[in-house]
Design a protein that fits this description.
The protein is of the alpha+beta class. The chain folds into three domains: 39 residues; 49 residues; 66 residues, Nucleotide Exchange Factor Grpe, Chain A, domain 2. Helix content is 50%, strand content 15%. It has five helices and six strands; from the N terminus they run H-H-H-H-E-E-E-E-E-E-H. The strands form two sheets. Strands 1-4-5 form a three-stranded antiparallel sheet. Strand 4 and strand 5 form a beta hairpin. Helix 3 runs antiparallel to helix 4. The N and C termini lie far apart (108 Å). The relative contact order is 0.09. GO terms for molecular function: adenyl-nucleotide exchange factor activity; protein homodimerization activity; protein-folding chaperone binding; unfolded protein binding. Belongs to the GrpE family. This is Protein GrpE.
Length: 189
Amino acid sequence: MSEPSPTPETQPEVLPPETEAAATEPTAPLDPIEAAQAEIAQWKDLAYRNAAELDNFRKRAAREAQDTRAYANADLLRSLFPILDNFEMGLEAARAESEKSMIFMGMNMVHRQISEFLREQGVQEVEALGKAFDPNLHDAVAQEHQPGAAEGVVLRVTRRGYKLKDRLLRAASVVVSGAPTPAETAPAT
């Protein structure tokens, strides 16, 4: 036998959650002045938040614009470094022939001008020779043992590295001193 279906008089009343919460709170008439002041406080808070957000945006945009101006030439300078490397190899070849030749003297003058131009642009050479190996600034291409040299010290620079202000444009390729191999440390018999 089935139960009789509830009638509207016997069925419990189900309220939505927001109505249920409002139904349990005592309903006091809201003073229009208090309501207006609460709304004013809400709009003031929103205005302060938006003003702070706009101020932060302006500061961030100014910082990004300054960085863009400071490092705008970075790609151009990176493209110049291989050309400078080849020029320096030619300068060394001219020096080997004769330091008194007109070709060497002319190439040397151009090299000084290029170096001065790079300095004016804020480019600095990464110091490497004799320094401790720093993976943030140096790119190790080889490791070899040299008696008397501490482990992890740059022995030779195979390609110069450069920084633009505080940013690394190209890491210096270096040969680093390492621990002696077992064959070097084995006593001779």
